[in-house]
Each structure stands twice: as C-alpha cells, then as structure tokens.
Design goal:
Strand content: 15-25%
Number of strands: 22
Shape: globular
Bound molecules: phosphoenolpyruvate, magnesium ion
Distance between the termini: 57 Å
Largest sheet: 8 strands, mixed
Radius of gyration: 29 Å
Strand order of the largest sheet: 7-14-13-9-10-11-12-8
CATH class of the largest domain: Alpha Beta
C-alpha cells in the first residue's frame, strides 16, 4: 500500500515540474530517497541509438547531459537489448559490465536496471546502484518496473528531446487543429481569471446592477468591433462564432442569473462567477465532445466580462516589433485572434480546447497553423521562441538551431511547393500513359470551398453536411440549408457535387442532439438516424433539391448503408420530396443517388443494390476502422490503423472489380486519396476518381502526372505480396523517394 502511495506521490510531483529536465530529476531524486540507494539514473536512447544519461542522483552532476553509453554497451545496454530487468550484486563481474569514464561506477556493489518501453521499442533504461552489496527485493524491483512504465509515458511525449544545456528544446504533443508550420515568439493570452475571484458581499446593489448592464453592452460592442476587424476573412460559419458569443451575451439566463446573484447580496464578480461556473459545469459534464467544447466559450465569456469589469483588456498589448507571434494560452480565444494583425500571426497554441472548438474552426478558415489540447500551460514566457507544427500537432519550445533551420527549410519548401504546384492547377491529372484521373475536393465548411476550386478541383466529391449542422445551435431550417447548399452548388456550377446526407452519431455528435450509447461506432449513426427521423431527412433532401435547381449537378451520397431496405426507404423519401416540391411549383430534377462503401457489409451487397444506385464512393476511413476493428480516433491504437493494411487493399480491390462488373461509377473519398503511397495503389487497382481535402490536390496531381498505370499495377502487385501495413508503407515510401515526389 505504501508503495502505491509513494508511486502516486512521485508521479504527481513530477507531473507538476516546470520542464522535462526538472521532471526527471525529481523522479530520480525521489527513487534514491525512497529506496535508500546511492544512485538512481535515467538513460534515454538518443538519435544515434546511444544511451544518453539525462538525469542522475548520485553519479557526478557533470556527467548528466553529456555522458553517453554506446548503443548496446554495458548493463544498461543489456537491459535494453533483453527488455527485462536486471537485478544483481557485484555488477563489475557481469560479462556485460562497461565502465563509463568519469562515473566512478566501479565502487558500486549492486545494480538494478529496468527498461522503458513505448510502442514496442525500448526508449530508455532506469537504474539504481548501491555501494553496499544487497539485491533488491521482488517488491522493490516491481516498484522500479512500475515507475519505469510511468516514466516511459512521460518521456515518450518529448519526441524532440534535446540534451543541450538547461534550456532544452522540447516538443509538446497536442491535437492537430489547423495544418501548416508557424515559427515565431510566444505571445501569452492571459484571461482575467474569474474563477480566482474571492466571494464578497455587495455594498451598493443598485450601482452593481447598473454596472452589470453597462458591462454587457460594452462587451457586446467589443465583440462587434472584433468581428469587424476580421472583416472579409469571415465566412458565414466563422461569423456565426461571433454571433454565438453575442447570443450568449444576450441570453436572459445569464443576464437574470447575475442580477439575481447581486440582488441576493453578492458583488458583481461573485455573482458572475457563480453563474458562469454553473453553466460551464453543465456543459463540461456532457459526454459529447462538441458540447464539452462549448464550456470553453462560456468560461471565455465570463473571463472577458470580468476583465472588462476590472478595466483590463483580455490579452496583453502586442509588442511593437514587427516579428511574427504565436498566440499561447490556456484558452486562446476567437477574440485573441481578432486582436492580432493577420500578417503577424504565425500560429496558435491553446493548452485547453479541442479540434472542435471555435478557435480551431477559425484557425482553419484563416489558414493559421494551430494546435489545441496541449495539457497544462507551464514554463512558457512572452517572447519564448517556438514552432507550431500543425501538421503533426507538435509545439516545439526553444527550438535549437538545427531544428529551427530544419523547420524554416520545411516551411520555405511548403511555400515553394505551393507556388510550383499551383501552376498545375489547370492541367489535367493524366498518367504518363494517358489515363485520366478525376480529382475532386472534400468539403464541409463554406470556408474551404474556394481553396478546392483554387487548387483545381474538378468537382466536389464529398460535402459533409454534418459540419454546417455541427456549428449551428439548432437543426438548421430548410431555408437555412437551401442558403448554404446553394452557395456550394453555385461555386461548383458545371461540376458534379456530391452532398452526403447528415452523417451524425459515432464520433460526430450534434451539440443539440446528444446521443448516449455504449458503443457509438456500432450504434445509431449515419443513415440509421436519418431514416428514423424522416422529418429531418425530408427537410434536408428538399433543401438539397431546391438548391440544385438550375445546376443539375446534385449527387446525393448515403452514409453507413448496410441493408437493401435502407436504400428502398431512402428512395421513397426522395420520391416524396420530389413530388412535394413539384406540387409547390419548384422545378426540381431527379438527382443521382449513391452510397458510401464504408461498412464491410456493403461490399458483397453491391450487386443486390445495383438497381437503386447511380454511383458509389469508398469511404476508406470508416472502411478501415470497421475492417480492422480499430477506432479511428483512439490514439492508443493509431499504429494499427493504416489504410495500407493488406485486408483494406484486398477489399478495395474487390469493390473496384465489382463496380466495374456492375458498370457503377466509382470514386474514393476517404483519407487514402490524400496519401501518395495509397494513391499509386488505387490507380493500380483501376480507380479513376479521387476526392480529398483541397490542400492535397496539387501534390496528388503532380504524382499522377508522373506515373503510368503499368508502374502502378506493378507496385500494387508488390504491395499485395507483402505481409503487413508497415512493410507495405516502407516499400511504398522507397518508391515515392525514387519518384522524387515534391
Ligand atoms: C470515410 O469514412 O472514409 C468518409 C469519407 O467519411 P467520414 O470521414 O466523414 O466518416
Ligand atoms: Mg465515414
């Protein structure tokens, strides 16, 4: 019991340390103390595969950060190679003993080392040594093994851990929220912290009430000003974020809640704190991530109102110099972004928040690299140099020279590449042996409609209608939907538009329609929800048909279909919608109807479904998830989730063969279309239509224009002969290198 308590205490203390160096030092000090050993040391595998001594209690301080054991050498190397603990006396007589110069290790008479393993690989070794000859008890050894496992989790996050000096370059892992690389200096966004307010009684309630009303008006005015500052950069959805703030500010529950608090004898900040706390807790307790993310908005608003009451501005004044800044904060808010001129804003790093937060939505729309959910904001000061890598979700603090140069090169290469590839915009995607591949864009926000067209999309291969539903506060009305869909149709006039009916449930909840299920991936989702809510479905289908009038480019795509009856029922709803609209005088036309092939059950049923379908589109994201039984959003199993898995390749080939035999037009609209390694294989299979996020179109077009179908078929045959996805990926990466893919 005491061991468990001690373990918990050590791990908690380490979690609160300022930086990685302090964290590991704290752990080795604590182990030394608790186990009464003379030495406790942590070695980590460095880039060369050597063992670097990164922390020690007992070995000479000068050795830390400098001493390195050649990979595989010594008892430490032995533990790493065997991957199990070594608990011995008289270590110097062990055949693997290796004397680390300057360490004075010859004086130690006992040794125990345990490996740190992460993702199947040894990343370090934790050791204890003592001058007296005593072997650790089984309990002590277990204690060390457990701490090793905990430490492995901590240090695995420092992927770019550098051991130079005390200012270590370190990388924090967060959630990728907007792609790109941003290099700049930290600018901290400090919220006036409402939750730190100490409750106090109200001295003059009437004056406090008056002050409250004025405060709300002032902040409403501020939000309007910020909205104007972003001006034309605002798409409809982003403008809706500001509208949501205005709505919260005008919410009678908020207004009267604070008034009641003041009348009840509390001063304004205390009354405000109680109301904001109540609402934010309500949202935080909700299961679905979108709703939980709304608690951020509420807290932000509370802090803002409090800041205005204090007479402070919520973010610090931007330094005058013209350097580029990265906004860093516990909660970087939409207002913080609005307060920085666009040309100075290099990136966003928000320690709280999720990829669904409004900050993430806005960053994407403005093209600013962003990372959310970085954990605890600690040890970062204004002006600290940093890099936001929105492509991998890493925040690199104090990048050393080499890393910064690397990222600057990468960022310059990204820009050059964009420029070079932009020239291909109007060129067709044709293989060198003359096979035409159609490249479409995926979209969901109106904000990403124009990048698709700017990058030469020949159509919209997947419009995810759940996105406009997600950033709305209620189900959008038919008129709202007609307005949104019409803009999409208009933008892509003359080109095919594939609109998917609402694909909610699973990992895509709606804020105002919570669904609680034990196993949502296998539950009420996609077409199942639509067919159970035919009112919702018919409204959406009517809106799509109305928006398509005069364009004749509507393809309706059905998600998660698993049964013939679903197609029959959808066709009936479609006929009903067409008949209703015709009676109402709308000149609607029959759309094309197709299904997503994203549940394995769809594949073998394609022949049965032929009469109901005009086309099919492979949803490789869900198809991989369901074929491999791997939750596509679970980071713990992300290494198993790879669409290059032999089973996925096999099943997609089967779909291609079936579609050809059935003369069903086929496309693929999952992430595979954006993955160059997968694209070669898909072309080899015979897929001639791919839909991807707009940003990936130029690179994929370049690829297609530089391969021929014979080569693609040969690589497919090679991939199909390989045993697992990692080998397939390595092989394909080698081929891509030979091609010099930009
Ligand atoms: C898919 O599953 O591959 C797909 C394109 O749909 P979504 O990613 O929206 O589930
Ligand atoms: Mg899907």
């Amino acid at each position: 019991m005491t061991v468990i308590l001690e373990l918990t205490r050590i791990v908690q203390a380490a979690a609160e340390a300022e930086n990685p160096a302090a964290q590991v030092k704290l752990v080795v000090d604590a182990i030394h103390h608790y186990m009464a050993m003379d030495v406790c040391s942590l070695y980590l595998v460095d880039e060369q595969g050597d063992m670097a001594l990164v922390a020690s209690h007992g070995l000479g301080e000068p050795a830390v950060g400098k001493a390195r054991l050649p990979g595989g050498a010594g008892l430490v190397g032995w533990v790493a190679a065997k991957r199990h603990p070594l608990n011995i006396i008289d270590p110097a007589s062990h055949p693997a003993f290796y004397y680390l110069p300057g360490s004075e290790e010859e004086q130690f008479r006992s040794f125990c080392g345990v490996p740190l393993v992460r993702g199947g690989a040894v990343i370090g070794v934790l050791t204890v040594q003592s001058r007296v000859q005593r072997q650790l008890t089984a309990e002590e050894e277990a204690f060390l093994v457990t701490l090793g496992a905990q430490l492995a989790m901590v240090v695995a996050n420092w992927s770019d851990w550098q051991l130079t000096g005390m200012v270590v370059t370190r990388a924090l892992k967060g959630i990728r929220s907007a792609p790109g690389i941003g290099i700049g200096e930290a600018h901290l966004c400090r919220d006036a912290s409402l939750f730190s307010v100490v409750d106090a009684p109200c001295k003059d309630c009437e004056a406090a009430l008056e002050s409250w009303r004025r405060l709300v008006q002032d902040v409403q005015e501020d939000v309007r000003r910020e909205q104007a500052a972003l001006g034309s950069a605002l798409s409809h959805e982003v403008a809706a974020i500001f509208d949501a703030y205005q709505m919260l500010l005008g919410d009678p529950a908020l207004l009267s809640g604070v008034e009641q608090g003041i009348r009840g004898g509390h001063d304004l900040p205390s009354a405000l704190k109680a109301v904001i706390h109540h609402y934010s807790e309500l949202f935080l307790a909700m299961e679905d991530p979108y709703l939980r993310a709304r608690s951020e908005d509420i807290q932000h608003l509370g802090n803002r109102l409090y800041g205005a009451w204090l007479g402070t501005h919520q973010s610090e004044v931007l330094p005058q110099a013209s350097g580029r800044v990265i906004l860093v904060g516990n909660q970087v808010t939409v207002s913080d972004i609005a307060n920085v001129p666009r040309h100075r804003l290099a990136g966003i790093a928000s320690f709280k928040g999720s990829a669904l937060s409004h900050t993430a939505v806005l960053s994407n729309a403005l093209g600013i690299p962003a990372i959310m959910g970085l954990g605890e904001l600690r040890g970062i000061a204004n002006g600290d140099p940093m890099i936001v890598d929105g492509n991998t979700g890493q925040l690199i603090l104090h990048p050393n020279n080499a890393i910064e140069v690397e990222y600057r090169n990468l960022s310059a290469a990204e820009k050059r590449l964009k420029g070079r590839l932009r020239k291909l915009r109007d060129e067709p995607a044709v293989t060198t042996d003359g096979h035409r591949i159609e490249l479409f864009a995926n979209s969901g926000l109106l904000a990403d409609i124009s990048p698709g067209l700017a990058n030469g999309a020949e159509g919209l291969g997947l419009y995810r209608t759940e996105i406009p539903f997600m950033i709305s506060d209620t189900f959008p009305s038919e008129e709202d939907q007609v307005r949104i869909y019409s803009q999409v149709m208009q933008a892509y006039r003359g080109k095919p538009v594939h609109m998917r009916i609402l694909d909610i449930g699973g990992d895509k909840p709606l804020p105002y329609f919570p669904i609680r299920e034990e196993n949502p991936a296998l539950g009420w989702r996609g077409i199942r929800i639509c067919l159970d809510n035919t009112a919702l479905l018919i409204t959406q289908v009517r809106a799509m048909l109305r928006a398509a009038i005069g364009f004749d480019n509507l393809h309706i795509l059905l998600p998660m279909v698993t049964a013939t009856s679903e197609l029959v029922r959808f066709r009936a709803v479609l006929e009903d919608a067409l008949a209703q609209l015709q009676t109402e005088g709308f000149e609607v036309t029959q759309p094309y109807v197709g299904v997503m092939v994203e549940v394995p059950a769809a594949i073998s049923q394609l022949p049965l479904w032929r009469e109901y379908l005009d086309f099919v589109s492979i949803g490789s994201n869900d198809l991989s998830q369901y074929l491999l039984a791997v939750d596509r959003n679970n980071p713990r199993v992300s290494s198993v989730y790879d669409h290059l898995h032999p089973a996925v390749l096999h099943e997609i080939s089967r779909v291609v063969e079936l579609a050809e035999a059935l003369k069903l037009p086929l496309s693929l609209c999952g992430e595979m279309s954006s993955d160059p390694a997968a694209v070669i294989l898909l072309v080899g299979m015979g897929i001639r239509r791919l839909s991807m996020s707009a940003a990936r179109l130029p690179q994929i077009k370049w690829l297609i224009r530089n391969i021929d179908t014979g080569y693609a078929r040969r690589l497919l045959a090679e991939a199909r002969s390989l045993p697992d996805s990692s080998v397939i990926r390595e092989t394909m990466n080698r081929h891509l290198q030979d091609l010099q893919l930009p």
